[in-house]
Structure formats: C-alpha cells, structure tokens
C-alpha cells in the first residue's frame, strides 16, 4: 500500500521542516522536503502530492515582515499550484511562519469579507513557551472529532492574529473557521490572559481554517509534541495531548 505523498516546502531560513516531516511520517505519510528554488527549476508536479505543509522557521529571515517573502513565492511563482491544491480539497497546513505566509498570501482565512493578519505580539517581545490549545471546529478536517486539548510550544515574535474589523470575529466563529484557541486554567479559553494567550490574539485564536475546512494555519508547533517524552513535564507524569493528532486527522481525510 502506497503512503500518501506530502510536500513540505522549504525556503532559506525555514528550520522546522524536519520536525514536520517526522510528524507526517509518524501519522502515516511519505514526507518529501523541497526547497522553493528546486520547485521552480524542476517544475515539480504538485498534483502528485496529496498533502501540503508550509512549516515554521524564519523564511528569508522574516525580511519585510514574518512570512511576507514566502507569501510572495506562493502568489508569484506557485499561485496556480496552491489554488489547485486548495480547490481540490486536499489537506494543507501552515505552521507558525507557514501560517503567516498563508495569511499574507490570502489563502487564509480564505474569504473576501474578512481581512486578517498576524502582527507583533502584544507583549512586545519573542514568546517561547508551552501552551494548551482547545479544538473548536468540526468544519476543519484537521481538528474534526478532537475532544482532548493539544499541548505544544510557541516560538514567535509576530503571532498576534488580528482582524481589520473586530466584528468579523463573529463571522469566523459562525462558519466554524476558528479551529483552535489558547486555553487557560480549568480547561476554558484563555480570555486574553497572558501568558495563556501568549500573543494577544483576538478571540484567543491560535489557528484558523478556510471555509472549506481543508486548510489550517496555526501559530503553535504541534510537530514538536508528537512523542510523549517531548513534553517538558513528561517525567512528572504529564501525558496525552499530543500534537500528532492533528497530522493523523490530516491523513484520515485522504
């Protein structure tokens, strides 16, 4: 039985591609990391892949803004391929820098009536800490059916999800596009309280999907909690809440 082929994009400065590849392979896929320059020169057939991952890191050193130049790659060189991938309903995930790139490329939130961006953390500095995420969407194939929280780290300076019009938050919620929110104590949403919401995102949003539900973008790094011993409190009995579940859901959709 052939494993689904998963295209993992790499650009200068990307540094979480190997982590993403390990998560994909543990979930049952065949990960293939390709540099964007390689894709341009070889004209790789994107239709031969069943899943797309835009991983985290600091693509192009975050010049002109986090994910901005990667977004230009997606819209200038690979717009046709990306649009075909999304329109076909294939699973797409953008993590951290990948989320920033998908938002700035207009792939997310994927609707003309909601303008969004990811900007500087409300704290004014880089945030590197573990957070808890609550799955909130049955529309999103990546979070569908998940009842357990996800524990994983954040590592970003520009992770605050904002909307041009705060009233549009209701539209995202109603459409099931708020896929993941930051959690506070007691299993409830963080309600904007720092550091549970590490960046000040509106509505505690950690991840959003497109209206179709096949494209997920999130700031935290689920690929860095795919094995129990990766949790910082593993030796103190912490267990479960693996980020691997998101990747397994992506595979189930194929």
Descriptive account of the structure:
- α3 packs across α5.
- The mean pLDDT is 96.
- The chain contains seven helices and eleven strands.
- Helices cover 23% and strands 23% of the residues.
- The protein has a nine-stranded mixed sheet, with helices on both faces. A two-stranded antiparallel ribbon has the order 5-8.
- The chain has helices spanning 17-26, 36-42, 68-76, 79-87, 97-104, 169-174, 244-252; strands spanning 5-10, 30-35, 51-54, 92-95, 116-119, 127-135, 150-156, 160-163, 178-182, 205-209, 215-218.
- It is globular and about 50 Å long.
Keywords:
nine-stranded mixed sheet, Rossmann fold, globular, alpha/beta, 23% helix, 254 residues, two-stranded antiparallel sheet
Question: Layout of helices and strands, plus pairs?
Answer:
Elements: E1 5-10, H1 17-26, E2 30-35, H2 36-42, E3 51-54, H3 68-76, H4 79-87, E4 92-95, H5 97-104, E5 116-119, E6 127-135, E7 150-156, E8 160-163, H6 169-174, E9 178-182, E10 205-209, E11 215-218, H7 244-252
Parallel strand pairs: 1-2, 1-3, 3-4, 4-11
Antiparallel strand pairs: 5-8, 6-7, 6-9, 9-10, 10-11
Helix pairs in contact: 3-5
């Amino acid at each position: 039985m052939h494993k689904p082929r998963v295209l993992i994009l790499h650009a200068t400065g990307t540094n979480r591609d190997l982590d993403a590849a390990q998560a994909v392979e543990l979930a049952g896929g065949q990960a293939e990391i390709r540099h964007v320059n390689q894709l341009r020169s070889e004209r790789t057939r994107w239709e031969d892949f069943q899943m797309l991952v835009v991983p985290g890191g600091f693509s192009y050193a975050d010049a002109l803004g986090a994910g901005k130049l990667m977004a230009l790659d997606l819209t200038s060189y690979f717009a046709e391929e990306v649009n075909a991938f999304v329109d076909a309903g294939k699973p797409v995930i953008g993590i951290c820098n990948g989320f920033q790139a998908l938002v700035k490329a207009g792939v997310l939130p994927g609707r003309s009536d909601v303008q969004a961006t990811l900007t500087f953390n409300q704290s004014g500095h880089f945030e590197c800490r573990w957070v808890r995420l609550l799955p909130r969407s049955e529309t999103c194939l990546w979070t569908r059916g998940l009842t357990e929280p996800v524990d994983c780290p954040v590592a970003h300076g520009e992770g605050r999800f904002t909307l041009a019009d705060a009233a549009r938050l209701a539209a995202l919620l109603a459409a099931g596009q708020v896929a993941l929110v930051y959690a506070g104590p007691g299993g409830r949403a963080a309600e904007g309280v720092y550091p549970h919401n590490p960046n000040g995102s509106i509505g505690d949003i950690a991840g959003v999907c497109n209206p179709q539900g096949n494209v997920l973008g999130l700031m935290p790094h689920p690929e860095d909690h795919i094995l129990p011993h990766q949790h910082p409190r593993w030796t103190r009995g912490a267990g479960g809440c693996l980020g691997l579940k998101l990747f397994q859901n992506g595979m189930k959709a194929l």
